[in-house]
Design goal:
The protein has 280 residues and is of the alpha/beta class. The protein has helices spanning 21-30, 52-65, 84-103, 121-146, 171-180, 190-193, 199-206, 235-245, 260-279, and strands at residues 10-15, 35-39, 68-72, 108-111, 114-116, 150-153, 164-166, 185-189, 210-215, 249-253. The chain is built from 9 helices and 10 strands. β2, α2 and β3 form a beta-alpha-beta unit. The two termini are 35 Å apart. The protein has a single domain (10-279), classed as Alpha-Beta Barrel (TIM Barrel), CATH 3.20.20.150.
């Protein structure tokens, strides 16, 4: 099956459909995607649910379809917890995700996790970010020994969910992490960046560290996973900025109610429109 035409900045499309690995690769293949997410926040996809037979089956399917998975780590792992004992336990858990990624020849996306703090929010969030940096340094070192790439995904900067706070959500936090770990690579979730931030300036500031992007749209308040043309994010401007800086990478779609092929078509139409405008 030939894959769909795509904009020049796309090295491959990825499906993000919250399916089992087996169903996910079939759906992605039918939708002309080169990659698909194995989301280990799903109970059926956690590291302890994988035996050698299951791993071998997926590897064989990847070879047959010329595809490769992306392991979407469990975003609930408290890698930034201000409780050191909890953070250290979470590192042992994520090591298992890294080992799974190695067995499946895949990169692993990790997240900053969340803290719960109704009182000393500023102090605890600073410690949480420092702890996330420690966690990332440890996991990058472990992953390098196994030949696994680690990507950091930004979470939503919700403004009204106190006392619950995601970590690694806004530009100042990302800048701090990259200052300490300049080699860190980001899988940029544009929909997340639209909540409490400006996704366009976010991309402009960090595009050199971004290896892939997750596309969806929302109302700026909740992560609704709308199609590209249904929400407050202006994807015409996003594509314009991408072309301006000559960025290239993977584009993942987490657009509920639309197939990957429909999202690819929307992105193609956006890119054609932007390209014509630039040439005028």
């Amino acid at each position: 099956m030939e894959r769909s035409m795509h904009p020049p900045f796309v090295t491959g499309f990825s499906a993000q459909d919250y399916l089992t690995a087996e169903a996910g690769i079939e759906s992605a293949h039918q939708n002309n995607a080169k990659h698909w997410y194995i989301d280990v926040s799903l109970e059926s996809e956690r590291p302890d649910q994988w035996n050698s037979d299951r791993i071998n089956h997926i590897v064989q399917q990847c070879d047959a379809y010329d595809m490769s998975p992306i392991i979407h780590g469990n975003f609930k792992a408290p890698l930034s917890s201000d409780v050191d004992e909890l953070r250290l336990v979470s590192l042992e858990y994520v090591k298992k995700e890294i080992e799974l990624a190695k067995n499946l020849n895949a990169p692993l996306i990790i997240h900053g996790g969340a803290i719960v703090e109704p009182r000393l929010v500023t102090i605890v969030k600073k410690k949480a970010l420092d702890n996330f940096i420690l966690s990332v340094e440890f996991l990058l070192n472990y992953a390098e020994k196994l030949g696994v790439e680690i990507y950091l995904e930004n979470l939503s900067n919700y403004q009204h969910y106190s006392p619950f706070h995601y970590i690694f959500t806004y530009p100042e936090e990302v800048s701090r992490v990259l200052e300490k770990i300049p080699e860190a690579k980001i899988f940029f979730d544009v929909g997340h960046a639209n909540i409490g931030n400006d996704p366009i300036s976010f991309f402009e500031q960090f595009h050199r560290s971004i290896v892939g992007m997750s596309f969806s749209n929302n109302n700026g308040l909740k992560d609704q996973h709308y199609g590209l043309l249904n929400g407050e994010i202006n994807y015409y401007q996003i594509v314009e900025k991408i072309l301006n800086v000559k960025w290239e990478g993977i584009i993942a779609f987490e657009t509920r109610g639309k197939t990957v092929m429909q999202s690819i078509h929307e992105l193609n139409e956006i890119c054609i429109s932007v390209t014509k405008k630039r040439a005028a």
